Amino acid sequence: MPNTKYKKPILIILLLSIIIFFRCDLLNTKENESNQNILSALVALASQSNATQIPDTDHTVGGTLSGQLNGGTIVLLLNGANNLSKNAIGNFVFGTTLKSKTAYTVSIFSKPNGVTCGITSGGTGTIASSDVTNVVADCNICANGTKASYEACDDGNLVNGDGCSNTCTVEPSFICSNTSPSSCNVCGNGTKVSYEGCDDGNISNGDGCSSTCVVEPGYTCINSPSVCTN
User: Fold this and answer.
1) Under 8 Å CB-to-CB from 96, ≥6 apart: which residues?
2) pTM assigned to the model
């Protein structure tokens, strides 16, 4: 196999020689538009060849797991595979390496019972010229009354039917506040709470207050139950 060590320097020298040739030719034939275009193209090519490039190297992806696992195990995925199980809070690194310039996504495959988890930062990106160490995964005990950013609600209990389920998801027909702990209200019951845009006592669309208690475009809604006008 031929040695490619000197290919890049030789290419640059060759291009520069051609540039000098055409520069001299241009001095003698200033009207030659074709030569000017060729010269511009060669200059751009030489600059591109001499540009700094990210080396094709292998790198790891990892970060920090924070919060509470409640004695259980979380399983993380790298690009939909490469399972990594963690049963303790702290740093983590996937065993699989990725080439530079490769896109990556860290996601959650499974989490402990009674626990909600999310990737809160650094979960997606492209490998550059160093290892990725800034992925943050966080877990929170559902129903502890502290709503995490990746929880739809957390009302401080594991009771179903009150708007916030025992898995910290908002139940059908309910609207829940973005507070800790969460407060939930049945949309369409005619009692407007602060985290509803409106509540006109029904779940019909097209009357100004939607089936999800949001003010519809072109309408203004006031009072409880809401009265909407356009």
Assistant:
1) 78, 82
2) 0.70
